[in-house]
Fold this protein.
Amino acid sequence: MRRYRNAGEPLSCEPVAQGLLNRGYRLATTRGSYFLKHHLDGDHDAIARQHRATQRLQALGVPVAPPVENTDGDTVAVIGGRCYALHPWVEGRHRDGAQLTAKGSRHLGGLLGLVHVCLEQVMEPDPAGRAHDSPDPAGTFTLIDELLTLARDRTPRSAFDALAEHRLAERRVLLERHAHRRPPPGAEPATGWVHGDFHPLNLLYRGAEPAAIVDWDRLGVQPRAEEAVRAAAIFFVRPTGELELGKVRAYARAYRKAAGADASELAAAVHRVWWERLNDFWILRWSYQRGDRRADPLFAAVSALAVWWTREYEAVYEAFTG
């Protein structure tokens, strides 16, 4: 705290429970409250780029919480080889899709569209021209076999292990049936700078209005409309795995209008994200391969969504493009 002018003397530092990728703390001082973030990846240049982006986005009216500059004008504090950033504390609460009205769903889609348009203004064009190929089912079949072995061998077995075994076997059948629908190379929609991790835990509301979009760690260049589809699949999924398609429709229309995206861009994104979900087992990889079980509670809804989406593909497609 000695690195910051007028930040006050520290009084308390309490861990913030939510968050999977970094460590956060609520820091109280004689001058107020702050959010202290420990960036576990430790990439100083990437973190500083994220900070500059949020500063510029704030100037354009995007609700963000840029970091506090220290006495040297830097926003990244490196202590013992670890990277930290100090942000103003934002009073607010997280809201998932079940807590949003149709109007709130429209505002959410419009906000993400605004983010994409403003990022295009504040970020340098990406010259890399990276490929964004869809997952190869051959690799997924190998992963399914590995995860099945780990699920069956875990002791003591739990309801989670039984569900994992069921969903893995079920997904292999679905992939065999739909392998011919893998999106071909070059089928991705237009790329651009995106937040990279737009979901309820990274958006704070004050009342009905968004107060701050936080956690820009995955800022990068991706197919833009795919972020819109992924976000909807997180915000608007019910615990049983279905999407609230009425809210998805309101959200998607607002996103298309704000971002200037047409229906064909969303159509390509819907197909690619559906295929991505059909091949994705990140929660099981964390649980069985890394021994990190923090995401286990998400598995029931996430795995059910892939099955439901496959069955209701046309209805989901229409909700995003109609």
Q: What stands out?
A: The chain has a mean pLDDT of 95. Residues 102-122 form the longest helix (21 residues). Strands lie at 10-15, 23-29, 32-39, 77-79, 82-88, 191-194, 203-206, 209-213, 220-223. The longest strand covers residues 32-39.
